[in-house]
Amino acid sequence: MEASGTFLPGRAPKLDRRRVSDQIADDLRSRILGGELSDGSQLPSEQELAAVYGVSAPTVREALRMLSAMGLIDGRNGSRATVTARGDSLLALSLASIVQVEHVAPREVFGLLSALNAYAAELAARHATDYEIDALADAVAATGEVAPSIEDAGDRLRRYFAAIADASHNTLLAALCKFFTDVQIGFAVAHSTHADNGGWSRIAGALQPAREGIVEAISARDAERAALLVREYHAQAVERILSVRREGGPEQEALGEALHDWLRANVVLGR
Question: Which domains does the chain have, with CATH numbers?
Fold first, then answer.
């Protein structure tokens, strides 16, 4: 957005008795989420916004701080804030916050991923295009190859599950699957890095035949079997993740805090 002339056509919304900065933040938030202010567009300056709303610059500044804390704008590039309304980032911040605030245990988090990925595989078996089936075959083949590092192996697993999620043709489901997949794999990679030798192999390396079976079921358009195989895969994967302990690290009861530490370090504004 280059100038304030294209911003807020007509009169500004009437402000009520709530904190004025809250109301301005709510109005801007609605415009961002509604698409009027798209990702990458630039807001008017604080002085211009103050004139539009009939308030002081400090009041506008407080409203912009709230939007920045929500991950909706980035004000680091000067006086004009930039809209950063990316659905995947907003979803990740919200879900990570719930996991931490509610002290959700790793087994519960990973159990939800099992249900989500099972549904995605079921839909993929019904709706995947031939191109998507080929992409799945390539992705599962890559997970069976020797990777140069645990991190690279984790990225290959992410791409494999992302291919299943995208083939579901359900945008919201795919976003949820990708977030929880990233959490599970990211946690497993971090946990394995500190484990005794063979930790990653016990977590994911030995499950290659199961991953191939899932792709075979999707390719055969067997939705029920695909969902079943995904649930069986995750049941094994979760047990392997929770069975691997860091050298001198947390016992089982401390794994929840380890998961929350991972979320705090990896799901942050600006990523």
Answer: 4-85 (1.10.10.10), 89-266 (1.20.120.530)
